[in-house]
Please model this.
Amino acid sequence: MTLKIYGIGASRTVRPLWAATELGLQFEHIAVPYQGGGTRTPEFLAVNPNGHIPVIEDFRPEGKVTVWESMACALYVAKVHGKADGKSITPATVQEEADALRWSFWTVTELEKDALTILMHRLVMPADQRKPELADAAEQRLRVPFKVLNAHLQAQSQMGLSYLSANRFTIADVCVASVLAWTTSSDLLMSEFPAVKAWLDTCIKRPTFASSRKLA
Ligand SMILES: N[C@@H](CCC(=O)N[C@@H](CS)C(=O)NCC(=O)O)C(=O)O
Model:
């Protein structure tokens, strides 16, 4: 049985890579970068017709399973390759399953686009191409979902819980923190929402995040 993960750590591929690394899985890493046309070759389009990384191919006794969409890939790794023993990132209860689904869908719909705008226009694009006003507007919009997350984390903390779901680091944290890692340059968001900042720091300081990001 072979699990193949296509993509590089410095991309959305970090989501399934982080999940697989947390679980200590053996996997084959196929380092397809997002620049240079590697995602648009006929061979790659046969794997993911969308022409994007990440993609997972899971060669199982019952046949090959293909997964694309980064959140689906991360959730798949946790669900299918982890043990639901209440010790790993894998959801172990119906509530934990619901948390993984709701927080990851929420991240894609409520956070991802604006978080990427902040990353691109504050850090990644060449300085002369950045538009600070776009990052500023994204930051203002993000105050709304950040307030929701901050309140949730404060409520968790009042129950003695340090993470999004359950009493441990789970796939819900992987899915949300991998996107919010793009917003750490935002002094406004990091200072206005201290519970988010503290939780995010804890998640992205895990050695598994750094080692997954480095896979190239
Ligand atoms: N919604 C998709 C977006 C995937 C995506 O845009 N991936 C980028 C890298 S982070 C990519 O493959 N870009 C290269 C291309 O589109 O050709 C997901 O979450 O997987």
